[in-house]
Structures are given as C-alpha cells and as structure tokens.
C-alpha cells in the first residue's frame, strides 16, 4: 500500500507509527500542503524510521505521479478541506488531520468531493484509539453505566510558543475546532446521540502575543434525549506540568459513572462495589487499522467519514456560537 | 444571643453546630416554616445537643414572643424568601438556607424587606467555610495562579429517596438553585467577576418517580472580563459511592491552576514545581461567625447579603435559561 503525506503541521507522525506497526506499506512521497510550510522535520522523521520518500514541492504533482492509495493530509488547518478534496478527486483515500474543515463552505465542498469520489476518508480522531478511551467506550457500550445523561469533557494544553499558523483564524481555524474537536467527539461517540444545540464562549485575552488564538473556550451541547455535555478548553496548563495535555472526561449514566483523568480510568457501575480502575484496552494503531480497512472494507475501523464530518460540523457550530455569543441549533 | 429556627428541611443543623462551637447563644424556639413540615427531627437534634427550645406551631407567633436576635430559615425552599422577609420585618437578623428565593418576584420582595430592615442577612453558602475551599480562595486571592480565566464546577449527589417537597417546582425551586447554588457561588466568589450571561439546560428524565425534580443540569456562565465557567449538576452519584457528594472545582489562571476534588486540593503555581497539595485552612464555623458578626459588625464574616442575593439571582437566571432554552443576559 502506497502512502503520501501532505504537510507536517498536524500529527503526520501517526502515519509513520502506523506503517511501523503494520510492518508493511510504503511512504512514497512527502510534500508541503500550505504556503510556507516546511517539511524538513517530516523528512527527518521518515528517514529515521527507515523510509526514503521523494520530497515534492507541490503535493498535486506528487499525487499525480505517485498515485498513492492513501493521501495523509496534515498541513495548516485552514487548508485541510481543500487539500483533502483534491486528494479525493485525484483518486486517493484520505486520512486527514482534524478538524476536516475550518469553514462551513469548505466542509460542504469536502463532503461533496467525498460523495463523488467513492473513496474512504477518516479524520484523525485519535482518542478513539487511546486505550483508556476505548476501555471506557466498551464499558459504556455494554450498558455498564446505564443510559448516558451527562458528560463533562476537558482539554487543557500548554501554550508554549506556537508558530504563525496558530495565530490567524484563517490558517488555524480556532481553538474550539483544533483543541476541542476531540472533546466534542467524545460527547458524540460515547453518547451515540445527535447534537441538538450548542452555546459556547471563547477568548483570546492573555494569549501572550498569539494573535487571534483563543486561549480559553467553553461549550455546552444539548443532545438528543436531553443528554447534556460541557467542553472546557484551555491553553493555560503550566509549563512545568508533568504532561503536555490534561485530558479528562466524566460520563454519567443512569446506573453509574466512568471517568478518565489523572487517576486513570475509574468506573462505578452502581453495583455497590464503589469506584474501581478499569483495565485499559489493548493498544490498537489508528493508521494501521485505516490501512487494513482500505485493503479490506470488512476490517473494523472506528472512525467513519460521516463521523469525521459530523464532528467537524459540531466544532464549527460551537465556534460560531462563541464568535457571535448566540445559541446555535443543529 | 437568642436564636430561633424555622423549619428543618434544609441545613438547620448548621445552627446547632454553631451554637456548640461558640459555646454561647440560646436556642429559644423552633417552629415549622411550611405547610406540612414536621420539626420532630430538629427537636431531637436540639435536645441531643443540650438545648431546650419551645416548640411553636406558628413561626410568626414564635418570633413575636421570643424576639430572637437571629431567625434561622430552613423550611421548604419555595418558602425561604417569604419567611425570611417576615423575620426581617419582625426585627430579626436572618440566616437563611440557599437559595434565598426561588422566584424573581420573591427575591425582589426579600431584597426590599432587607433594605427596609436595617438587619443583616446571610444565605447558607456553606462552602465559603469549608477548609478546602477557603485554602483555594486564599491562594487565588494572593495571586498565586494569576488572573482567573476559566472555572469548571461540579456538584454530584446521590438521589436516594427524596420527599414530596423535592418533587414540585413550587416547593423545591429546581435543581439548579438547590444543588447548583454552591457551584454558581464558586464561580462568583473565586473570580470576583460579575455574571454577564448564562445558558443552561436541565432535565427530569430518569428521575425515578421524583416528579418535577431535575436529575441533571449544566450551565455555562460568561462573566465580566471574558471569564467563563461551567457548572455540571447531577443526582446520579451511585448509591454505593463512598461519599454523598462529589464536589469538584478547577480554577484556571494565567499563571497556574488549583483544583478541589477527590485528590484533595491540588495547586500548580506555574513555578516549575508542578502540582502539590495545598494545606487546608483551619476550620471556621459559619454560623458561629455569623453570630460574632451580629454581635460586632466589625468581626469578619464571609457571606454578605448582597452576595446572597446576587448568587440567588444567578441561580434563577440559569434556571430560566434551562426552562426556556435561551441565552439569558444579566
């Protein structure tokens, strides 16, 4: 299976890891996806992992010549949709960094390109492949906490010093789509409800010179069945903090609760036994499974194109709610 | 100092504890405050603590005869405002269960009664006297985490089997005012900002036959200075859970974070030392300090009448947002 990577702003390394995990597949080419994007770090990462991809200056030329099975899109976030649509048009399956689009118009164009293509697409909703989250998901799906009524999600990042693409809405897309998309996906993936409305707020105050980057954001989603979910996002994790990200999720059901956070995965199944750690799920590799799924559509894969688009839409509606400070229906 | 207690639906025992802590003050009388309210448990608690209050059938008669310095109001929540206003009118200082009112009209009448009375009033915003919260407050106030940008608050209770007063909006007032008032107070007390708007949702689905009682609720408050706060409330804490309440607060500032929860009080001051436990503040007794403050207005007391009213208003606006599913400005 032939793979090309476009851009190295997002998590292009998922691809390298997946190729290594599967021990098959060829990284044929790499190219920048956005104006001014340098792919030196990606070239080094590829070389260190035993790959020898051709470096192209133009990703269209690369796709045209290499005709890869899979195009990985990880350029500036504002270019995800356009590049992914072109890759679909050129006959590639697409593995694209989240959010899949940063404007409603781009999302519509991407969905149309996908519908016309007959190809497969997945956004990098990587938490669906993180053992703690998979373990929680399995417990929820087997009904261990009853019916979900409430979710509380948190993403907290260190700000560090972020480059120019993060500082402009056009290239960055906003903190709710970039950081929040995972948390918004949790609400949807765990509850299996649809989004009904969202109110949100965000602010770029105190962002230490990072232009339009929103340092803080909070969202309240009402979902079908009167299920509610909050998402709290910040870039205020102290620099000395032990891990880069402080991800938390509390899922409250009619029978019990599950939470993921600094104490691991803890479940109370309402059976009188109290809180207990939930064993982690075995580690599965997202990109390796995507390759398997391309090779054999019967092979399981956890992130559908429909979910990729729907979560993107939810991010954009939340961002709109925060921009305009209005309640947005779905 | 002479004290009378009206009702025993709320936390009337704060009063008994306070009298014991201070070792002075007399519990002169007790009476029900709402139709059908029984005060047997309160009479037993008083007797067990060495008090011998006269039991009245009518609290107005009690206040008229006993002329207490302080009337404690802890009847059905929907009657708080009316009874508190009468007590002020009859010349008592008032220590009232939160929320101080369950309708906007009642809140206005209570504020007017307070303004006319020249007496003092405090709602039982008891977390301002809980050592973990006091420790966090002191750290925030000395600037240890910089400027607050974001707060996430949680109240999670066991439902158990709750009596009739909890099952009707008229007597209960709603879960956002009853359970949420503490969390809403945290946003205000810690941030020292004003509320600008609130969106909220609540639902009585799956409430195991508890009538109108909302089992779940979430609120998103935008405050002045673009400070944001979520409040998540549920009655879904499993029956076997180790403590009745699972209270959590995460406060995110420009320099660091403080959180209160199952791991205690943890602070990261952004000094490179990472997360550390914050020593608890010495325990102070809320009602004892209220008595001290009545005796001497110069004596410190943490809950002003203005704060009691403002937090009540915030609760009612959040409940309105949830009832109507609209964004409510302040």
UniProtKB/TrEMBL annotation, chains A, B:
It comes from the Bacteria. This is Gfo/Idh/MocA family oxidoreductase. The keyword Mitochondrion does not apply. Residues 2-122 form the Gfo/Idh/MocA-like oxidoreductase N-terminal domain. Gene3D superfamilies: Dihydrodipicolinate Reductase, domain 2, NAD(P)-binding Rossmann-like Domain. Residues 133-259 form the GFO/IDH/MocA-like oxidoreductase domain. GO terms for molecular function: nucleotide binding; oxidoreductase activity.
